[in-house]
Amino acid sequence: MKVETSHHIDASEPDAHGMHDWHYEYDMFLFTDDNLRLAARSYSDTSHEAHFIGLERKHKQLNIAEEFGQPLMLFAIAYLRSVGKTELNYLGPDGYQPIPSSKK
Fold this sequence. Notes:
By secondary structure, the chain is mainly β. About 10% of the residues lie in helices and about 50% in strands.
């Protein structure tokens, strides 16, 4: 299993005073195992949280809620906890929901 991390800043163009209408800073985590890819994002202003936002196999989107027991998901949860993410959620059809194993 492999982990790739990257840091991103997504912001509007600065106005005349150097201010942005919107500004998002976050880390992306991409977990891969053969043809399975799992993406998670953690915003800098809520750095204790991470959100699983996509799971795919061979470019086909999978339902994250049906994959909680997958080895890649378990690996990703353990990795995120090891880097200080204490609140883990996933993007479901009704918005962000807690990962069952992440409840304390």
